[in-house]
Fold this sequence. Notes:
Elements: H1 14-23, H2 29-39, H3 54-63, E1 70-76, E2 82-87, E3 93-100, E4 105-108, E5 112-113, E6 131-132, H4 135-153, E7 159-162, H5 172-183, E8 195-199, H6 203-211, E9 217-221, H7 227-233, H8 242-256, E10 260-265, H9 274-284, E11 291-295, H10 310-322, E12 327-330, H11 343-346
Parallel strand pairs: 4-7, 7-8, 8-9, 9-10, 10-11, 11-12
Antiparallel strand pairs: 1-2, 2-3, 3-4, 5-6
Amino acid sequence: MSTPVKPNIRNFSKEEIGEYLESIGEKKFRIQQVWEWLWQKHAFDFQSMSNLSKELRAKLEDKFSFPSLSVHATQYSEDGTVKSRFKTHEGHPIEGVLIPTEERLTACVSSQIGCSLSCKFCATGFLDKKRNLTFDEIYDEVVLINQQALKLHDKKLTNIVFMGMGEPLLNYKQVMKAIERITAPDGLAMSPKRITVSTAGVSKMIRQLGDDQVRFKLALSLHAANDRKRNEIMPINETNDLKSLIDALNYFYKQTKNEITLEYILFDNFNDSFEDAAELVKVYRQVPADLVNIIEYNPIDYARFKKPSPEKTEEFMKFLEKNRVNARLRRSRGKDIDAACGQLANK
Length: 347
């Protein structure tokens, strides 16, 4: 006979945990203590819950499971970037990055184990998708990166970006639930305005974000401003073309009035000509984007792309500036470590 699988305690509400504790004769104040260990004091197992009796800890362990992430490998870049490979309870690798600047400490988190989108420039695109991350695993990523921020900088995280492994909008429910816990007063109490969800472009789910009146920011990974080129590097464009994305972004903005950013990685001799820049201007004028992030490419071993010369990059930026596009060049971080998304997990 197989052993029945114990339910994950973090899938239960405070009320449900309270009902269980009362059923085994525990005092009401224990409910708050257990809840704080789960979401505010960040225990990663029952034995860490030090203000509970050994007997209660044993009962909780007998009744529930407590799967959590652990840090498996960490790389430190000369520029301060810290990249971690986390392991899930069953041993799958995922990645998270701490990105420090003078103004902010940003956690870049993953939403899936691997990815199904197969973008041609992305290391994660060369990994098979194993499964979606659960909301509590995403929460653990933020907690672990926040602990790194406190240890290295003596400050908490200021921002979170969903730009790690996977497509957040293809794990919609768990990502939304993770953000709810991250922003909850009895969670990490972070402002939703400091959270950005980045999508490769799932038109239907962008509209769903609008319908759900989300309060966080949205970024679209554009990387090519016409359908032919975008189809070539991002197969998702074949079912979510630029017109449908532009319509969805306008709908999202109409519903939420939230900021939208366009992300555009420059690839040498692919999307870095004046013609490409002119097409980017055209897209920018059709969407309510407040910013275009032009991103330096972090080359990976198994992709054919390279980053353009500094001169070419500067010319591209000047063209956008001349055409009154609010554009910012985002320098590549962690060049001396496996900083491109998916590289460390691929090892």
